[in-house]
Write a structure and sequence with these properties.
This protein is mainly β. It has a single domain, classed as Lipocalin, CATH 2.40.128.20. The chain is about 0% helix and about 70% strand. It has no helices and ten strands. Strands 4-3-2-1-10-9-8-7-6-5 form a ten-stranded antiparallel beta sheet, with no helix packed on it. The protein starts with a strand and ends with a strand.
């Protein structure tokens, strides 16, 4: 399980039976989000913006990749990618949306 505190919420990833995982994200701008997924399989879910996305989680080397494709609204067709990895005792999330890239650091509880 990976769990980290955001400024005003948490992000928790838990391994489930049969190769599934659950990610809980609390206190996004549109409320709490829960995804249940299998690595490499695309599913439709609500994005942090409150709109539907096609979402795929995968692993590349030591990184968990979260890939969102916006499927409606003014960002339809846009891709957002988040990579999670460990660095100096933190879970680091590097996010890219259009030309903007930023990092968020999660401290383990």
């Amino acid at each position: 399980m990976i769990k980290g505190k955001m400024t005003t919420g948490t992000r928790t990833i838990t391994e489930l039976p049969q190769g599934k995982y659950r990610m809980n994200v609390t206190n996004t701008p549109k409320g709490d989000i829960e995804y249940t997924f299998v690595l490499g399989e695309t599913f439709e879910g609500m994005g942090p913006d409150g709109k539907p996305h096609k979402i795929t989680f995968s692993v590349s080397g030591d990184r968990l990749i979260e890939h969102h494709e916006h499927i409606e609204g003014n960002r339809k067709g846009d891709i957002d990618i988040t990579e999670y990895f460990l660095e100096n005792g933190y879970v680091v999330a590097t996010m890219a949306a259009k030309e903007i890239v930023w990092k968020r650091y999660y401290k383990k509880d």
